[in-house]
TrEMBL record:
It comes from the Bacteria. Keywords: Hydrolase, Protease, Viral release from host cell. This is Prohead serine protease domain-containing protein. InterPro entries: Peptidase_S78_dom (IPR054613), Prohead_protease (IPR006433). GO terms for molecular function: peptidase activity. GO terms for biological process: proteolysis. The keyword Nuclease does not apply. Residues 13-157 form the Prohead serine protease domain. Signal peptide: none annotated.
């Protein structure tokens, strides 16, 4: 099976942690010559059964940031999508990612997956992902495939009321 990759765009940095959404549910996007959306619960079986899921930089297996097996990557689903939290290592890749996240320069998050038999459904040129096998999530510096989320950095310093309002508007997709 070929591993497919999709991109979402929400990343937050706080201290040495990155958090956000690697995928969002019910957001339709164009992939090549078809429309695709991820159904709520699409990652549930994979999160329960996978022995190890990686967090990478740009899907590069030589640039590991964290993994579920060691507890440095935590993944869960909520009503919005696939939520993640990464304990970023003090490596050159980790420092680079944190610097870019703090500046707001990251393109977003992506995920690599395969679709088991019966895991998707097609209606014409529209595909719904209902169940996927998640292999990795990646911090990326490119453009997102899935919209509806934002990239923003958080730090331990106090934010102004204006900064908080802008961040909320971005999360709601208004800005």
């Amino acid at each position: 099976m070929t591993i497919e990759k999709r991109i979402a765009t929400e990343v937050r940095a706080e201290g040495r942690k990155l958090s956000g959404y690697a995928a969002t549910f019910n957001q339709e996007t164009r992939i090549a010559d078809f429309q695709e959306r991820i159904a709520p619960g699409a990652f549930a079986a994979s999160l329960r059964s996978s022995p190890d899921i990686l967090a990478l930089v740009d899907h590069d297996p030589s640039r590991v940031l964290a993994r579920t097996k060691s507890g440095t990557l935590r993944l869960s689903e909520d009503d919005r999508g696939l939520k993640f939290e990464i304990d970023v290592p003090d490596t050159s890749a980790g420092r680079d990612v944190l610097a870019l996240a703090t500046r707001g320069d990251l393109g977003g998050m992506s995920f690599g997956f395969t679709v088991p038999d019966g895991g998707d459904s097609w209606t014409g040129d529209k595909r719904e992902l209902r169940s996927v096998v998640l292999h990795e999530i990646s911090v990326v510096q490119s453009f997102p495939a899935y919209g509806g989320t934002t990239v923003q950095a958080r730090s331990r310093k106090q934010r102004t009321d204006a900064d908080r309002r802008i961040a909320l508007l971005e999360l709601e997709g208004i800005r």
